[in-house]
Amino acid sequence: MFVGYRAGKRGWGAAGKVIVLGLLKRNGVVRVFPINGRSRSELTALIAAHTLPGSLYYTDEWQAYATLAVRGEHVVVSKEKGRPRGRDHINGIEGFWSYAKHWLYMYRGVPRKFFHLYLGEISFRFNHRDEDLRPLITGLLQHTRLAQACKS
Known about the structure:
By secondary structure, the protein is of the alpha+beta class. The protein is built from six helices and six strands. β3 (56-59), α2 and β4 (73-76) form a beta-alpha-beta unit.
């Protein structure tokens, strides 16, 4: 969950937070989605749309992920005092959340209606973190309708 600075209640019940679902594939590509609620149906619909049946899922202990065993193998990573118990971990996606919060910290809060754009930029940067972004962005700009309209 992401939120700007707010006085008052912290945690799940705090007002103004945006809930974000993150999926990290084995090759290091992350996909993130701001979601409206924490319902099992909304989460499983997104997971089904962006993963293949028979996949291996590593999740935390949250009960909304319980039905993932039907789609593939599901490993629940239990934590004790913030550290995973046993050998299984979800450090890859936890690393992305740290990366995202680091990028967003400098803004000291992002307008809610533009949050999905900031999140998209951060996931793009994370997915291409080992590449030079200048040629990638130049290539994207050359293939947009706006760039083609300006040439005419």
